[in-house]
């Protein structure tokens, strides 16, 4: 219903002005000419009047088409593709500058170290400071907040222009520093902000984008665009966005997500070809695994081991990330110190990580000089490192040289890389800068662990696996693909990471082992820990309903009557003005249940608090209050007041909250709350109102006590819209102040409709 009448407000005002002008001309004795539409009146004079009218009609036709979904989605995909390409170019420039500084000081190790650690520290510190000053809401991934917003919760300033600027600039600096951070989660937030800004711009022309419900659908499509233009993976982007942001998804929005994500991914790759980074449109990390016999059936147990181990690793990553944040918050001394020195923590973390990855130092055991992109390219390599021995044959392999160490083998390097980068990524993602955790988990831990298993298999079977007199060598790069999909799926509790790796590599030869590993990883991880995004929601205490997953089977035995609130305020069908005022002052609920009477308590529906306030304002309008003051003044002069009463009657309103019987279990209530996006529901017994259950009570029943402060449930883009105070509101406020000064005088009465009288 939002924006239902504002669409015709301008036309109504013009028609009314035209009517008044014609009426004035008629009163002056003139004969009014046949009236054109009001919006064309100012264009009907002059020699070029027909041309002006035709141009205006063409303009109106074009503007009406701008409001169509496909135009909006094209604009969204185009803008996000440009933003993604520009950010990637800036990030690559920053990383290249660090390599240039490091390589130019190869004669002095001390200067190399200073350049290696100072450069990322400055970028991270700038990102943290800039984000904190401009828009603190830009910190972090953004997926947990979008998951909450799409459920109907307003998070202040999360979809504004300044948050967009802070997110883009802060993320560019953070990723340009070379820290183990990701961009997929932040890009979901950036795309959502872009969609909100486009909706606000297009709403200036009227049309469907004044409707708040339609904007929610556009936000859902924007989440898919964020992933699609980040990895050039439109199919996986749509599926991933649905899994991480939605509990229930409207199928009618499916085509919007696919269309916008595909167009955005296409433009993103076309820009790479235009910039001569690629010769043609191809996968972002193209692999060349053999297609005739990509793997043997005897390798499936190894792929299953990768999935199970990735499930434990994903749960451990989520647990470690949460414990680091909780430790920083629970240590009051450290917390107070870091609150005063907000830039000290990101600077210290960056200094620590960059010191450990310094290539001439400990970084030589973990390929410290490689960027995330270079690391992923090397881990997906077709060649078997253990078979080659990492000696003479590595001279021509370029960046693969980083994995060679004269005093250790590839297994030591991979183990050190996995262990060090694992906790570094968990620590780095707690820095208060715009960043995500998907890419570090995908590249650093997942692909590296899969490569380690693949190299181990190649060492155990140096001549490959023999099948029917044919010998097929082990392909460790395929194991790296399986490990990347499995661990990232375990951390995020998604299966769509399998589709993302297919689009990233351009091959689906390992579809069976990837799916086996991802499913096993999800089964293990979901039984141990929530997803990373749900963990962040719990840490930030956002008002989101947790999922009924593993370990919640005992909640099926709990009834709604066990958790509902029994003492609630309500409005009767025929209530007094005094009762309405008492209800409004005694509760802050945004909607109130409407019952037939206090004796029967039959639930008829609900009425919004704003509607109830409008009803009172209508019954006690400013004109009536002024009339009451005049009558009071006349009464002081000896005149007689009217004995008529003012009658307040609340008619039946449309039900705005779901009603449920007392013995419905929270499993069913959870489904309805998630499906309809409710924040409360009324509980009935044979039609009688007996209580109410809200999001808070349901969440406590599922996972324990959680409090949510600083947020309120309203339409998702309500805080994004500009709020203005009308003149009538100012007049009402002034009259209320005037009335308060004379509240000791009795209220005059007047005859009410129907003949019955109530106070």
Describe the protein in words:
Helix 8 (212-231) packs parallel to helix 10. The protein has helices at 9-27, 49-66, 69-104, 109-134, 143-149, 161-176, 184-202, 212-231, 234-245, 254-274, 300-330, 332-340, 344-356, 372-379, 385-388, 410-428, 438-460, 476-492, 497-505, 511-528, 532-540, 560-563, 577-586, 609-619, 622-636, 666-676, 695-703, 727-740, and strands at 153-154, 465-467, 470-472, 571-572, 591-595, 603-608, 658-661, 680-685, 688-694, 712-713. It is 56% helix and 5% strand. It folds into three domains: 55-275, Clc chloride channel, CATH 1.10.3080; 297-341 and 358-387 and 397-540, Clc chloride channel (Orthogonal Bundle); 560-622 and 654-703, CBS-domain. The two termini are 33 Å apart. It is globular, with a radius of gyration of 32 Å. The longest helix has 36 residues, at 69-104. GO terms for molecular function: voltage-gated chloride channel activity.
